[in-house]
Design brief:
The protein has ten helices and ten strands. The chain is α/β, with parallel strands linked by helices.
Length: about 270
C-alpha cells in the first residue's frame, strides 16, 4: 500500500502474536519510518529482533480527566470482567475461581461482558459449577453503557493467559479504564499487564491460570478496604502520568514530526 500511494508508513505493534514469516515481518518493520509499541514486552522483543531500529514505547491511553470517578461502598462483592470471549482472556479461569470465592462470599455476583466463540464453553462451565445464580454473561455494548458496571463493581478481574486458539493479549485497555475510574484491578502477571499493574501498588497480580491465587486476590480486595483504597489511589495517579491521552498523543505527535524519522510529514500515514 505504501508503494501504491507513494507514501511513508509507521507501524504500531500491539502484541507478540503475528502470522508472517519472521524474515518478511522483519523487512516490513525495517522499512517503516518509525515503530511504536504499546508494551515494554514487545519493545524488548522487537529491539532484539531488528538491527539499527529503535522501537518506541508509547502505551495506549485513556481520557483520564473526562472519565467519572467511582465512589462505591457496596457491602456486596461484585466482580466485573470485560472482553471478547476468546481463550486468551481466561474467563473460564475466572469462573472456576468464583467457585472458590463462593465459600467466603456465598452471595457474590460476577458479570462478564462480551461475546465471541468461547461463549458456549463459558455457559457450560457456569452450569457445571452451579453458578447460574451468581455469574451473568452480558452482551458487549457501548462504553457509555458499560460505565454503570464500572461504577457499581467491587473490582475488575483480568485473568489473561497464553492462548491456544486465539491471538495473544498485549495490555487490555479495560485495565486502563478501570484505573482511571478508580476500580481496583486483579490481573494476570502476563504480557504487557505489568506495565500498568504493579503488584501491591496499583493492583494485584496473580499467575495465569492459577484459580487459587485469583480467588485469593479477589477476596483480599473485598476484605481489606485500606488495600483497595491504596490500589485505587495509586492506579489513578499512574493512569494520569503514564496512560493519559494528552501526554501520549503528544509523544506520538513528536515522532511524526521528528526529522530523523520523517522527511515529509504531509505524506506520512500511520497504517
Amino acid at each position: 500500500l505504501s508503494e501504491k500511494l507513494n507514501t511513508d508508513y509507521s507501524l504500531t505493534i500491539h502484541t507478540l502474536s503475528h502470522y508472517f514469516k519472521v524474515e518478511a515481518l522483519k523487512q516490513t518493520l525495517q522499512n517503516a519510518r518509525f515503530l511504536r509499541t504499546v508494551t515494554t514486552e514487545t519493545q524488548t522483543y522487537f529491539n532484539r529482533l531488528l538491527q539499527n531500529k529503535q522501537v518506541h514505547f508509547i502505551p495506549n491511553c485513556v481520557d483520564v480527566g473526562n472519565l467519572p470517578k467511582r465512589n462505591s461502598d457496596s457491602k456486596d462483592l461484585h466482580i466485573l470482567a470485560i472482553g471478547y470471549f476468546l481463550d486468551k482472556k481466561g474467563f473460564d479461569v475466572l469462573i472456576k475461581s468464583c467457585k472458590l470465592v463462593q465459600h467466603r462470599f456465598p452471595e457474590f455476583k460476577c458479570t462478564i461482558i462480551g461475546e465471541g466463540p468461547e461463549q458456549q464453553h463459558l455457559e457450560k462451565l457456569i452450569s457445571d459449577y452451579q453458578l447460574k445464580r451468581h455469574i451473568q454473561l452480558v452482551p458487549y455494548q457501548s462504553f457509555n453503557n458499560l460505565l454503570p458496571y464500572f461504577m457499581n463493581a467491587t473490582l475488575l478481574a483480568v485473568p489473561s493467559r497464553d492462548p491456544l486458539r486465539s491471538t495473544r493479549d498485549g495490555l487490555p485497555t479495560v485495565i486502563l479504564e478501570a484505573m482511571a475510574i478508580g476500580l481496583p484491578v486483579v490481573a494476570s502477571n502476563f504480557a504487557g499487564i505489568p506495565d500498568a499493574i504493579i503488584n501491591e501498588e496499583t493492583g494485584l497480580l496473580v499467575e495465569p491460570e492459577n484459580t487459587e491465587q485469583l480467588a485469593g486476590a479477589i477476596i483480599r480486595i473485598k476484605e481489606n478496604n485500606d488495600l483497595a483504597q491504596k490500589l485505587t489511589s495509586n492506579s489513578l495517579h499512574k493512569a494520569e502520568t503514564d496512560f493519559s491521552i494528552k501526554i501520549n498523543i503528544e509523544k506520538l505527535n513528536a515522532l511524526f514530526h521528528d526529522k530523523n524519522f520523517v522527511t515529509n510529514t504531509s505524506k506520512t500515514s500511520n497504517l
